[in-house]
Amino acid sequence: MMQHLSARRRAALSVSALALMLGTAAMAQDRHAFFGETHVHTSWSFDAYIFGNHVTGPAEAYKYAKGEPIPHPLGYDVKITTPLDWMGVTDHSEYAGVVRLSNDPSSPISKLPIASQLKVKDAADIQRIYLWLGTSMIEMKPVEALVQPSISDTVWKANNDAANAANEPGKFTAFCSYEWTSNPDFRNMHRNVFFKDCAKVPDRPFSSLESQAPEDLWDWMDKQREAGNELLAISHNANLSGGLMFPTEVDFKGRPIDQAWADSRDRNERLTEMKQIKGQSETHPLLSPNDEFANFEVLNYLLGDPQGQFVTLAGSYIRQALKDGVAMQGAEGYNPFKTGVVGGSDSHNTAVPYRQENFFGGHARLDGTVKERMGGHNFAGMDVRFENPAGLTGIWAEENTRASLFDAMQRKETFATSGPHIRIRMFGGWDYAPDMTVNADWVQAAYQGGVPMGGDLKPRGGDNAPTFVVEAVKDPTSGNLDRIQIVKGWAKDGQSFEKVYDVVWAGERTPSPVDGKVPAIGSTVDIANATYTNDIGSVQLTGTWTDPDFDPSLDAFYYARALEIPTPRWTTIQAKELGIAPPEMVAATVQERAWSSPIWYTPAGDARGVATGRTVASLKEGGATQLTTDELNQLIAGRFTWVRNTVTGGVYKIQWSKEGQMLIMNVDPRIPQPSEVGDIAQGSYLGHSTAYQIRDDRIVTNFGNREYDIAVYKVAGGAAGGAAKAEGYVAARSNEFGFANYELIPAPVFLGTEVKDAVVPTGPVAHP
Description:
It is built from 19 helices and 38 strands. Strands 1, 4, 5, 14, 15, 18, 20, 21, 23, 26 and 27 form an 11-stranded mixed beta sheet that branches. Strands 29-30-31-32-33-34-35-36 form an 8-stranded antiparallel β-barrel. The model is unreliable at about 1-25, about 720-725 and about 755-768 (pLDDT under 50).
């Protein structure tokens, strides 16, 4: 086994470390993919009961997961397409069980005076109770009669008893778990909490009625851990968080984010949900304009559909959080967003629809019939046609037990799928051979010579680039595979970037000589008949990839994404059943997919090198002065400015109108653009302008419903990059962690083919 290690590493290994490595590798090679559910509600959740789920509870959820049919809330039987290996029922801790028990004449709670206010008899009751209890959660005003231990403790114990009854070590695992449902100002901050050992759970779960702050949840979790109770949290539906899920400046309580905050989040919140019934949280087309597969199940919605509020892109998507994390690592020295990924459902039916051909909704009577779904029913402001089948979690573990699965979740050796049982694997290392996957023991060699998904690729001297090994195996009952991609993110001087690489693909396609992308695989979908065939694609894809643009001085992350061939979306299938045309507001086909957890690379101190970027702090120390509102108006209003991005070398022009419109022009699409600017190359081509304001001595712009401000500094000669430079202007954008990465330059003079004062970008940042 030592042949996979370099001489330097061989010399460094002690006997005990070698024994540990060999033992770990021997165990790791026997890890298997176990599929399960991290997020499902039953009639014990107050909202599920209000929606019409009155019959089934946690016990039925476990039966469904094991393959038994159970009744849908509307009465018809539903059965899972492929049984699961494990499940955690995550009913809301807030008012758990109280609505169901108030409507059960045999329950002592139904005899309490307040129970009469919770009786569900008609649609008006649904709206009234939902707003009453939901508003009490948003406003942090708990209904005291409904949060007494005599109620909550009984329901929590019954939930855990159901998990213990369903648990069959080695065959099926049932976790003790719940959902902490923080929803401040209608913005989703929910977390699902999983316990390793049901014998050690607390008497009652921590509720958002006690605090809406995730920091307080983490403090409570730390205390549980100190008492010997291992647990972890999984954030969900970041896409509906209004930018709160992944903050970069201040925490929920308004305190500056620092190393301690990052450590607390990493210690307690190891995983986040990539996809569920209410959309995916990987990325958004405006955040990833060069990712042709980013436009997948995007949901433009906030819970409760509050008037006058919009979704916010920054802080709401996992890929951007991963990019912010590596940027913060380089700028601040810590990364608060080293998260693994899972999939979930958030079904409120007890049963869960994971497949397009078996989609029966997720909210009981509100989307439980074909006509209700396809008629465009507006449920709490959301057109149910934008719902999608549930996501699914895969865990690479030694055995199907609570301890083994939990340990794998803790080390983030997890992956998410959009519903099918696609099996995906990823490893990163320095010494992998390009053809290593032809060997029968390649998985064992991958563990020995590197790290699996969720791990950290330790820095290594020299300019060698890391190699990644990927594998995806299709679900036997779903579509063939199209390709495996690796998504890379990296950062320099506060700016972060991304690129998607095609690594291995089906068929004889050739990457484009222009952008390197593999052409679309085509489609066998017959939309009129809602059918497809597996005449294209592959059953299994395996390969290695070495980063061609690796810079050992830059923080980076990598994760794998496997795509199926196109198949009919559930709306197309059910339109065929009704004999109507598929709705046009959603795609007629989908490409199901799987995502691995990331692997991170963090440079060592000597590899990171000396920061060359200018910071706002260094500018001020050098005597630079910030322009006032009046000076900014004189500089830009009604004018144009030429700007150089000092990180990428990109040069472009900004036209500023006096009326508050700005247009970025002359953008070179070959140069990577930093995060949170949108598709400025396309905008430049189309002449798409955006609004700006000058206020409080800053230029204020808006992207993705979040404001970004730009401070401009006047620098004396030499301070802007050398003694030869005259006095000039340097700008800092608010999302780039204190770096001033933009300088105003004289207008380039174009004389024939000569470009004076323009920069031809070179190096790994300009060509990722």
